[in-house]
Design a protein that fits this description.
The complex is a heterodimer of chains A (about 300) and B (about 375).
Chain A lengths: L6 H30 L7 H19 L2 H25 L4 H23 L12 E2 L9 H5 L1 E2 L1 H19 L1 H11 L1 H6 L4 H27 L11 H11 L4 H24 L5 H18 L20
Antiparallel strand pairs in A: 1-2
Helix pairs in contact in A: 1-6, 1-9, 1-10, 1-11, 2-3, 2-4, 2-9, 2-10, 3-4, 3-9, 6-7, 10-11, 10-12, 11-12
Chain B lengths: L6 H5 L7 H12 L4 H15 L4 H13 L2 H26 L7 H18 L5 H30 L3 H21 L5 H6 L26 H19 L1 H11 L1 H6 L4 H28 L10 H11 L7 H22 L5 H15 L1 H14 L1
Helix pairs in contact in B: 3-4, 3-16, 4-5, 4-15, 5-10, 5-13, 5-14, 5-15, 6-7, 6-8, 6-13, 6-14, 7-8, 7-13, 10-11, 11-13, 14-15, 14-16
Classes of the chains: A mainly alpha (about 300), B mainly alpha (about 375).
Chain lengths: ~300, ~375
């Protein structure tokens, strides 16, 4: 066991843990906005898949990673708008409509992938950028300041979203709509407009989360490549107590467990790989069971709003 | 455990039957039916975009179902797990909880039934078949009961926990099928396809039509659908599950232990999906293999929704979607349209069905203002 925990091994786990946190962070921060305004969007999984596919397809056919990322964001917004239409305007049961959207995204991304597979070439994704000065600090530089642009962006989202949710008028409106839509409505805030905004923003983030997989972490697309990451991202929002900082903690915990599990397998430690692969899901359930602060749950979460209802 | 429930309080929440109500119910029941043609029309445009003639594709789909005895029987074979999972979703939904864990519950049900069959391989059929079915049902019930317990005790969102249980079951199954339960002949050949040995003949469900896979599991599923109807509408426990789903606050006021009945609803949901898994291994595959759940867990939700969350409505719904699955395989073979298009259609149907609720509500409001 002596060489199991050398400094370089630890560094390796930290680096890949931070990388792996990226898609969770994008998707879960976006979902935090949607849930704070009262909409449980379980379609994140399907949106991520569509984002991963469309981003990859455009990047590999045009050769532009940025164009791919932009496409993924737009596709995410469109799917977010679809979810908003169903859950806000048509007031459908949110849990089921999200599952429907996920099935739709899973099917469509697989369908398009199988139909376009001939024309797709391999891509070289977003490369790590070493930040000057900070990147030269021994150990810390390698671990924290030598990542691709998407990794930095995901982490920057956390302080940004804390600021927006807690210190801006729009953030106040979002929280008001999630806590007490009737009161917000009587003060002249359009509940529907705010929810459309947050759900399509969440969709955009989920699309980018998918693209971060296919354009920066894995550099290819496979059918059902998210394999439940979108649902885990939704769970992370509960775990984080609807607070971006909590979501960050959850994402990091989660990705470190994942990195550790991967490293155990590489190291050939005698744990059957499937048992190791179970750990993230078991951890999610345990985390949900012991997630503190359920009192912070937006009161109107998962409840459609209709004017004139008491 | 419970204080005796005051059913008089609850009765006010179940509406009285009447002709007008019946007529309205009929219209509301028919509305979601439009979702299937609507999805097929949008699907046709997608096929056009993929340079496939929609008429050829849908023709192949229909031909796949009605073109042969095999197609017809296979539709019922595919409808069977859909119906069983759908029944579980109906019970859970009526109790006000969502069971998205069908995939995992099918998997553990199939694992338990296979393990029982392989261990008790000397038993005669009349003892082995019920034992395996019960093993599958119990395993499914445990897999549904864990999210139920977590929901009741710790308030864990059951949608998320059942989804996580799916992934856990998938990995657990792969672990068993590549390790302790791996087919010895696979092991010897070194090919290591993740599957168990062939189950003993005594555990096979009787075939109904020779040369097809149609088996007694289909009859079992229909009998269970009727049983669920009687259970939910003619017994006190079923009544309480429905009461909890309709109005948890009133149920609590009437002395019903809401959490207990929600946990029960999720457990029963898992039980039926577990039976679906057992029927798949004992009647169709005759061995446990990776990917046995094959999406039935999710399609079963569509079946339940489409069947109006009624156990008897789930019967025709399961046949419809069973046909869609069988037909799409044929469509893939003749027109090279990936069968993933079925997921696209199913996703759209779910979105349409849940969205149609607003129209019912809109009509209800108009009724109120006009009377």
């Amino acid at each position: 066991m002596s060489d199991l925990f050398t400094l370089s091994v630890l560094m390796g786990i930290i680096v890949s843990g931070i990388r792996l946190a990226t898609p969770y962070l994008f998707a879960a921060i976006g979902e935090t906005f949607a849930q704070t305004s009262g909409v449980l969007n379980l379609g994140v999984e399907g949106i991520m898949l569509m984002g991963a596919f469309s981003g990859f397809y455009i990047a590999s056919t045009t050769g532009s990673l940025w164009l791919g990322l932009l496409t993924a964001a737009v596709v995410g917004i469109l799917m977010g708008l679809l979810m908003a239409l169903v859950s806000v305007t048509l007031q459908a049961e949110q849990g089921i409509s999200g599952i429907g959207l996920s099935l739709f995204g899973l099917g469509l991304s697989s369908l398009l992938f199988e139909k376009t597979i001939v024309s797709v070439v391999a891509i070289s994704g977003f490369q790590p950028i070493r930040i000057p000065i900070l990147g030269n600090i021994p150990y810390i530089g390698d671990a924290l300041f030598d990542h691709s642009i998407l990794v930095y962006a995901a982490f920057l989202l956390v302080p940004l979203s804390i600021y927006v949710l807690n210190h801006t008028p729009i953030g106040l409106k979002i929280r008001a709509v999630g806590q007490n839509p009737q009161a917000a409505d009587s003060l002249g805030i359009s509940v529907a407009k705010i929810r459309y905004l947050t759900v399509s923003f969440g969709g955009m983030m989920a699309g980018i989360a998918g693209a971060s997989l296919s354009l920066a972490l894995i550099d290819l697309f496979q059918e059902n490549m998210t394999n439940g990451m979108g649902y885990i991202a939704v769970a992370l929002v509960y775990f984080g107590g609807w607070n971006p900082l909590g979501v960050l903690g959850g994402s990091l915990l989660f990705s470190f467990v994942n990195a550790f599990q991967l490293w155990l397998q590489v190291k050939g430690v005698q744990i059957p790989s499937n048992i190791a692969l179970m750990m993230p899901y078991v951890l999610t359930i345990v985390a949900l069971a012991f997630a503190a602060n359920r009192a912070r749950q937006p009161t109107a979460l998962d409840k459609p709003f209709e004017r004139g209802e008491s | 455990m419970d204080r005796p429930a005051n059913h008089r309080v609850l009765n006010r929440f179940f509406e009285k039957p009447g002709f007008k109500r019946l007529a309205n119910q009929t219209i509301e029941a028919l509305l979601p039916l439009a979702s299937v043609p609507l999805a097929l029309i949008i699907g046709a445009f997608m096929l056009l975009a993929l340079n496939v003639n929609p008429l050829t594709a849908y023709g192949a789909l229909i031909n796949g179902v009605f073109g042969s005895t095999f197609g017809l029987t296979q539709t019922l074979v595919d409808a069977t797990p859909l119906l069983l999972v759908g029944l579980g979703v109906v019970i859970a939904f009526r109790g006000g909880v969502l069971n998205i864990g069908g995939e995992g519950q099918i998997t553990v049900g199939a694992l338990a039934a296979s393990a029982a069959a392989l261990t008790l391989n000397q038993w005669p059929a009349y003892a082995l078949i019920p034992t395996c079915l019960i093993a599958g049902a119990l395993a499914g019930a445990v897999w549904g009961g864990i999210p139920g317990f977590l929901k009741a005790r710790l308030g864990v969102n059951e949608i998320l926990s059942t989804i996580m249980m799916n992934s856990i079951a998938q990995q657990f199954s792969l672990y068993l099928l590549t390790g302790p339960m791996l087919d010895p002949s696979e092991k010897a050949a070194g090919t290591s396809i993740a599957q168990s040995a062939l189950l003993p003949k005594a555990s096979w469900l009787p075939t109904l039509v020779p040369q097809t896979l149609l088996n007694a599991g289909t009859i079992l599923a229909v009998v269970l659908a009727i049983f669920v109807y009687v259970f939910m509408w003619r017994t006190t426990i079923g009544y309480r599950i429905r009461a909890v789903g309709l109005n948890p606050d009133a149920s609590r006021y009437a002395g019903i232990n809401v959490r207990l009945y929600q946990m029960l609803a999720l457990t029963l949901g898992g039980l039926f999906a577990g039976i679906a898994g057992a029927v798949q291994v004992m009647g169709v595959q005759r061995r446990m293999m990776d990917g046995l759940s094959g999406g039935y867990g999710f399609t079963g939700i569509v079946v339940a929704l489409f069947g109006q969350l009624h156990p008897l409505g789930a019967i025709p719904a399961s046949i419809l979607f069973g046909g869609l699955l069988v037909g799409s395989d044929q469509m893939q073979r003749t027109t090279q349209v990936p069968s993933a298009i079925v997921d696209v259609l199913l996703g759209m149907i779910v979105l349409f069905v849940v969205s149609s609720v607003i129209w019912s509500r809109y009509r209800a409001r108009r009724r109120q203002t006009h009377v």
